[in-house]
Amino acid sequence: MAQVVRSPKVYDVCIIGSGAAGGTAAKVLTEGGLSVVMLEAGPPLNPEKDFKEHVWPYQLPHRGVGVGGEHRHELNDEFIAPNGAWEIEGEPYTSAPGSQFRWFRSRIVGGRTNHWGRIALRFAPVDFRARSTDGMGDDWPITYEEVSPYYDKVESYIGVFGTKENIPSAPDGIFLPPPPPRCTETMVKKACDKLNIHCVPSRMAILTKPLNGRAACHYCDQCGRGCITASNFSSSQVMIPPAQATGRFTLITGAMAREIVVGKAGKAEAVAYIDKATRSEKRVHARAFMVAASACESARLLLNSRSALFPDGLANSSGAVGRYLTDSVGSAAGGYFPQLEKMPPHNHDGVGGMHMYMPWWRYDRKNDFLRGYHIEFGGGRGMPGVGDFDRICEEQEGYGTSLKQYCRSRYGTYIGFGGRGEMIPNENSYCDIDPNTVDQWGIPVLRFHWQWSDNEIKMAKDMQETFRSIVETAGGKFISRAKPEGRRPYGIEDGGVIIHELGTARMGNNPKTSVLNKHCQAHDVNNVFVTDAAAFVTNPDKNPTLTIMALSWRASEYLLDQAKKGGL
Amino acid sequence: MQRREALRLLASAAALPLLSREAFSMFQAAHQQIPEQPVLRTLNPHQNATVTMISEIIIPQTDTPGAKAARVNEFIDLILTEWYDEEEKSTFLTGLTEVDTRTRDLFGKDFVDCAEKEQIEILQALDDEVTTARTEPRRGSRRKRPPERNFFFMIKQLTLIGYYTSQVGFEQELHGEIIPARHAGCVPLEEEATK
Predict the structure, then answer these.
(1) Which candidate from B10, B11, B183 shows the least CB-CB separation from A347?
(2) Residue among A234, A163, A150 at smallest CA distance from A202
(3) Pairing with A359, which of A39, A260, A483, B145 sits 20 to 30 Å away (CA)?
(4) At a CB cut-off of 8 Å and minimum separation 6, what does A2 contact?
(5) How far does B102 lie from chain A, in Å, by closest CA?
(6) CA A498, CA A493: separation in Å to the nearest integer?
(7) Given this model, what pLDDT does residue A2 score?
(8) Please, are residues A464 and A373 in contact by the beta-carbon 8 Å criterion?
């Protein structure tokens, strides 16, 4: 039987989760004068000890891929701080029969911002007006113009490089100068120019100039492993430290939130959490709560917060919690480019990720699918990793000098392309509580239901065709494993794989069909806010993190304003 | 430079663009997680000698060092010990033993004692078998990829992985190196150094 230990202190705000949403709220709320306690399910992060961005494969026990090699092509390899995994021991999730969904979760201070791609794209005005534009999905209760000042604040504070392009699908922001394109990117851009596909400097949360006390990038190409100089953005290194500096911030790590406890008056009073170190249940009290545990984890917490007043879960009178779950449409292919074989040694490092990308370019044309996608790409002579030569091994017979020469000539001649497209919410894609499964802390787990619709499949098909035309126009040989049929038609990834899952506590003006109002505040319980991507109404072809931070910043300012008026 | 000093420089970051190779290697050494002299844990001396020879034939010394110099045999021992499951390990070790069976049948001696010409003859036969398996459709298999449970395919794959992710394979064969802390776009490294 878990022992209940009551904490006597009442904080102004309790934030659940320390990632993009939680970190932003912590900074804004503490700097605004409120006392904040943050619960994080994982351990603290120590960049000096945990980050291995300058380590080579041969310096790691299993060349980077982990015991059993199970971390090949995964995100939790030995190069990366222990910041997340597709499967967490003792903390399962389930999928309904026929549903393919994967859920990447982080249990560490900073959450998924420690590894994310740093791609920082604004949503476009049309993205907030989906239903008005094509009749599908819903409009947001806020417009681009309302969010834009918060994009400005986030970009100015965290630092995003890019260029002003005046592309309607990809609004310009406040940008640092971009890094110059690599050879592979110059080559692909030439092909895109011929095809009338926009190919412009990417927009990434990586400093090309010093900013707010953080050093500029040192171009080691390993952002995904974490950055010891904090030259790229992570909540752990950029949002949490200023909160700590106020002296009004308390961080509780190893704290797995189980339930938001509601008082008799129908307001939230405390969070009941499992202190993992002692396996005991504790409570932390606050006047307001910001749920920022990641879209699905936040939905899970709300659904598990059942009481006499809220029998279907907190803030769920609409039944919309867990519904409207979407992920980005992802499909990938690549090309072999013989002209890259003969190049003298070049610097193919750079920032960790792409210097160029293709924003959606057919925004004013009739397509056979709705909405759009952008393309991310990369290649060249990076640090060879386990798996890089698998293809040669699979396809090339022989051994000896000829094989060695072949490997040398093929090294760095591959460029990969990935599409990221908009999924329209459908009634078959959602998460709910699995009635038969609990995790090691006794907390009921999520069960995922997933189905792509025809629109997404058509988009994946279009991506494959575009990749082929770019590769062939650039003088390469198209390589793709995607097939029109099968479980993943046209190479469409399983749900969740792109790690842009969102929409599970969406905002809206109508309390009957939405969970939150336009300030990310629960319709049913006015001292509960959900500020992560659960609040999103649509999932446009832009990576969600920048918008998560903008919405969390906006909600935090609203909460500060309420507090000043005595509304806490 | 002391380790602490290297870490301080990295953390202070203002000095980063000026950071020397020495500091980078110091930082790497601080994170080094493997012992300098690994002890073989699965392969016995005879198996190790056979693996070393086969991998050196797959990636031989040319104008750059080969698999032996990159200590691919130690990597393979690590994989057998900590990566492969029991079935994969057994397939590999059985296949390794069969190499000797073949050479004894044909030449009356173990693989390691064969002349180079004889060794090549055996490896060519093994490689041909992989090619055949790859080109012929496999019944009852959902994977269309080549035979991952074939000894020669396994040792070839492990040799490539072990070689190209080694310091020798990366720095000497692929001419990789720690690149200066800047990026000047699409220009050869020699020119970038002068920018």
Answers:
(1) B183
(2) A163
(3) A483
(4) A274, A279, A280, A281, A442
(5) 19
(6) 8
(7) 54
(8) no
Of A346, A393, A403, the CB nearest to B186: A346
pLDDT at A476: 97
**Domains: count for chain B:** 2
A residues 211..240 contacting B (CB < 8 A): 214-215, 218-220, 228-231
Which of residues 373 through 432 in chain A touch B, CB cutoff 8 A? 381, 383-390, 392-395, 397-401, 403-404, 407-408, 411
Domain that holds residue B87: 45-173
Q: Is A341 on the interface with B (CB under 8 A)?
A: no
Longest alpha-carbon distance in chain B? 67
Are A115 and A75 in contact, with CB atoms under 8 Å apart? yes
Are the beta carbons of A62 and B160 separated by less than 8 Å? no
The separation between CA A255 and the C-alpha centre of its own chain, rounded to angstroms, equals 22
Residue A180 has its nearest CB partner, among B161, B180, B185, at: B185
Query: What is the 8-class DSSP label of residue A421?
Result: E
Judgement on whether residues B25 and B52 belong to the same structural domain of the protein:
no
At which residue do the structure tokens 């000043």 appear? A564
The tokens describing A160, both together, are: 């995003």
List of chain B residues with pLDDT < 50: 1-21, 23, 142-145
Task: Give residue-wise pLDDT tens across range A131-190.
Answer: 999 999 999 999 999 999 999 999 999 999 999 999 999 999 999 999 999 999 999 999
State whether B6 and B97 are in the same domain. Answer: no
Q: Terminus-to-terminus CA distance in chain A, angstroms?
A: 34
Indicate the pTM of the whole model.
0.90
Same domain, B51 and B126: yes
If asked whether residues B68 and B159 sit together in one domain, one would say yes
Q: What amino acid is encoded at B70 in this protein?
A: A
Number of residues written out for chain A: 568
The answer to whether A299 touches A321, Cβ cutoff 8 Å, is: yes
Quick check: is B63 in a domain?
A: yes
Quick one: pLDDT band at residue A391, thresholds 50, 70, 90? confident
Give the C-alpha distances (Å, rounded to integers) separating A364 from A167, A462, B14.
Answer: 11, 16, 46
Asked if residue B178 is part of any domain, the answer here is no
User: Which of B78, B128, B188 lies at the smallest CB-CB distance from A346?
Assistant: B188
DSSP-derived letter for residue A344 is P
User: Is B183 within 8 Å of A220 when comparing Cβ atoms?
Assistant: no
